[in-house]
Amino acid sequence: MPLSLWLSLVAVCAMGAMSPGPSLAMVLRHTLGGGRAPGMVAGLSHALGVGFYALLTVWGLGALIVRQPLLYQAVTWCGAAYLAWLGVRALRAGRGGALQAGGTSTTRRQAARDGMLVALGNPKLILFFIALLSQFVTPGMSLAGQALIVLTAMVIDGAWYVLVALGLSHSRVLPWLQAHAHWINRATGALLLALAVRVVAGPLVA
Prior knowledge:
mainly alpha
């Protein structure tokens, strides 16, 4: 792949990673609840989910999923249900106020699970990759070229959310977040519930 084309791919992947949504809210929640390590784990796990959808795209399977209404609808509803569940958890945690053991705490295992499932449960990732990432896939592309596309999408997504977790867990930032955990959890929960509704309503909008 020519360098200029790869740089265009990097720009597209960065645009997708940096757009606000459930992934950012999820990394924020785990960083707030467990600090730097769970936040980074959530980001890296999310990158694996992104890599999976990127792999489907270069293999041409992403478009196949979209052309199967029942399958695509199932992914949509499962993703919406999971976002809603995360939103309810965040709202319930918000009642505890500042960060406390057994309140809003989180573990690396929970962060890894949520990172992967938020990525896989977001059908808009399929549409994003089909609309943009598929433009970089050419007929007869070598396995090395396909691997480069998948790895680029994964590395950029993972690097962005690791940077987010590092920034949020800074010694001057995290104490402020923890002191305002009550309202941040409520805002995050409301955002996740709104995104769940939007995911469900999306296919119904012309």
